[in-house]
Amino acid sequence: MTVVPLFVATVLAALLLWPRGGSPETDGGAGVPRFPGTVTRVVTEPCPPTPSSPEGTPRVGGGPCGTVDVRVDDGPSAGQQVQTPVPDGPGAPRVAVGDEVILVELTDPTDPTTSNWNIAEHQRGTPMLWLAVVFAAAIVAFGRWRGLAALAGLAASFAILLTFVLPGIGAGKSPLLVAVVGAALIMFVVLYLTHGVTAQTSVAVLGTLGSLVLTGVLATIATAATHLTGFGSEDATTLSMFQGDVDLHGLLLAGIIIGSLGVLDDVTVTQAATVTELAHANPGLTRLQLYRAATRVGRAHIASTVNTIVLAYAGASLPLLLLLTADARPIGQILTSEFLAQEIVRSAVATLGLIAAVPLTTGLAAVVTAAGRADATPSADASAPRPQPDRAEALAALISPRAGRPDEPEPTRIPPPSTATDGWPKSNRSTDTAW
């Protein structure tokens, strides 16, 4: 019953922090109209020299010159053939006949009747749609109903992020508070939707929530001790120009909280399930024995997950890391600079919260499992030694032929051991049901 008050408190906090009054105004300006089109012809030619460069010197962009004919597929000019220059510059798309692209029409401010067409980027809707279909089909094919529930949980997570967390931070609410409430709301919805309303899920919820709170406290202390401002990335600087009232330091803390949630879910659910399986495999284990055995599994999980966290941040920051290799400053100055120190603090705090989740969730699961087992079989002696099956019978069961083949003799029937009624679970017992 501990989870119910926490869920009610989370819902009330979300209602109090829910953004109202629409999205805040930004200085981003009006968007340029964009229209889909299909490339019908590409003509390339040598680039003329720039006025300040000698003849034969390629232009600064280094790309090809020429024109591209594109058929506009939608909008006021649908069906019309327009001509654009070959895209050039860093990150410019490379086009060929048949490519589906996005066109922008730029109007000359001095002469509104004159407009120029340019290719902005490729259309990516169709391949991304197919990728999403394959992604969903693979999850459902492997996980079946559980996979379908996981997809529903994923949709719920994005819905909470897009309707509560991001609008709440954009409306000027405390990013840390919004992130904690939003992460707790995502946790309740996703875990119970994916794993069912069971005691095992409730243990994972409590372990995740406790670890999230600890992560938030550690993140606050670490960012204050290292004097991080939140301006450690170009995206944050750009955001500050469009929305000056956003607390970037709080936004950094919010990112650590939300980024830690996904890994915490994995660890807490795994630890709760491990304790359940151990208790079902050997009902004679005490709480301390369950805790020690499941913690050994948690140590192995943490050892691999820590590497996962660091590599995930490194993979997302490869351009930054590559830029650092060309930096002439001493390594100490590079590591303590704002943009790199921010990533180090993020990884370290997330890892500390992850480590704390193992003993917390394992201890809760051991207490709940032992209590549920004692309630179910009050006359059982929990301290009794685990019954040992007869070794000869086990060997006979392993070497006896399988039944069902006409060319094989009838298998030897092994009488059930004397411990058949000792409370051991059946081999086909599933831990997906409620504890």
UniProtKB/TrEMBL annotation:
Keywords: Membrane, Transmembrane, Transmembrane helix. Pfam families: YibE_F (PF07907). InterPro entries: YibE_F (IPR012507). The chain crosses the membrane at residues 127-143, 150-170, 176-193, 205-228, 248-264, 302-324, 344-368. It comes from the Bacteria. The keyword Transmembrane applies. Residues 397-435 are annotated as: Disordered. This is Putative membrane protein. It comes from Micromonospora jinlongensis. The lineage of its organism: Bacteria, Bacillati, Actinomycetota, Actinomycetes, Micromonosporales.
